[in-house]
What we know:
Helix content is 71%, strand content 0%. By secondary structure, the protein is mainly α.
Amino acid sequence: MSGTVEPDWDAVRAEYEDSDTPLAQIAAAHGLTLNQLNTRRRKEHWVLRKPGTGRQRRQSLLARMLGLIEAQITQLERKLCEEPMSATEMRMLESMTKALDKITALEAAEKKVVKKRVRMDPELEAIRERLIDRISKLETED
């Protein structure tokens, strides 16, 4: 006997399809690697998880990118004590930083777009409406 226990694939599948638990957490809870989980998922054609809304995806991606950048920086700090940073490592760090900047810019742009219209004073609203009418009449006369 090898001593390894076959995972409860029905439970793994149910957790994958019915929860928002991160894949790494599902795999770890069942003693699997991500590769094993994904291979089985593709082989058995499991129902794909619904992606989050655009905002949720960006927030998730932003958090993941921050984690990756932090891990890379930690690794580079350790390595810099021993040897200088390679050109490949510098380019990778630069690419991750640019991606992070773009995601942050998208977040900032989204926040600006969601502003609500401020209610005008009724008198000013009436004047505005009359101006709109006059302008439209002038446009139709031409």
